[in-house]
Amino acid sequence: MLWAALPHGASADGTPRRVVSMNVCTDQMAMLVAGKGQLYSVSYLATDGSTSALAAEATSYVVNHGLAEEIFLMKPDLVIAGTYTTRTTVDLLKRLGFAVEELAPEASIAEVRANLQRMGKLLGRQQRADELVGAMDAEIARLNEIKLPELDLALYYANGFTSGSGTLVADIVGIAGLANLAGKLGISGTGHLSLEALVLARPDLIAIDSSSERGPALAKQNFAHPAFRAVAPPQRTVQLDSRYTICGGPFTLIAANILQQAALKLDTGK
Fold first, then answer.
1. What tens digit of pLDDT does each residue of 125-143 get?
2. Rounded-to-integer distance, Cα 197 and Cα 203, Å
3. Greatest CA span in the chain, whole angstroms?
4. Percent helix, strand, coil in the chain (nearest 5)?
5. Are 47 and 26 in contact (CB under 8 A)?
6. pTM higher than 0.85, yes or no?
């Protein structure tokens, strides 16, 4: 019967008891904030170590593929999605009467804080959210205490893409105490950084995704070019896992720490 599959309702104080997340970024925030047994399902991407910093933890939950029919049968009190999550599924779940909340992707650490606080309110776990934000602020303060010389960092991805101003990664670079080359070149958002511009700029450090050199692919040809090899010797490159930068969370600061440690080694000649 149809009514048997409908959501069973939140607890008396309005706290959802059965939560389903449909987006790899909301998955991870929900995992960090939710109480024991409160989060029922996360998206399949949450278990992928190349995109999720909490892939190991995600294996403890039922996995969904963002399909309306599978989420309908889970009878959630609350569905959490990203603003770009499958629109057909989100719209259908809303029409069926499910409570659906959407969180926008973060473009700064300030927005990470805001989404953590919002997740805390949605799940009735404000104290836990406050603790996570407090821990993040303490780590940022620690990173800011370490002073680096003026060093330019280039974020360089497959097909020559980079992250310019107004992106979460750019904010991470700043927290690490480095200058983002893309921002200096007037690039905002995700944009293209030509190999010629990279070579002419000769940044002090170049950060590449650790998967960039694994396996042949046309998109990765820029990393094999002799000009790139010349401007990016091993001592001036740093491997940065995209799982720390795709989504915002306390784990995002791991990326800032990786960049800062690479800069310190460069400065001391280690």
1. 999 999 999 999 999 999 9
2. 10
3. 70
4. 50, 15, 35
5. no
6. yes
Angle between helices 126-145 and 252-268 (to 10 degrees): 10
What does the pLDDT read at residue 217?
Answer: 54
Distances (CA, A) of 159 to 33, 115, 153, 208: 36, 31, 18, 12
- Which of 179, 172, 174 has its CA nearest to residue 150? 179
Distance between CA 185 and CA 148 in Å, rounded? 21
Nearest to 67 by CA among 85, 52, 82, 47: 85
Give pLDDT tens digits for 24-51: 999 999 999 999 999 999 999 999 999 9
H/E run at residue 134? helix 126-145
Q: Please name which of 71, 69, 65 lies closest in space to residue 18, comparing C-alpha atoms.
A: 71
CB-based burial of residue 125 (10 Å sphere; 0-12 exposed, 13-18 middle, 19+ buried)?
buried
d(C-alpha 112, C-alpha 124), whole Å: 18
Total length of the chain = 270
Nearest in space to 102 (alpha carbons), one of 113, 92, 87? 87
Sheet with 62-64, side-by-side order of all strands: 62-64, 39-43, 19-21, 78-82, 100-103
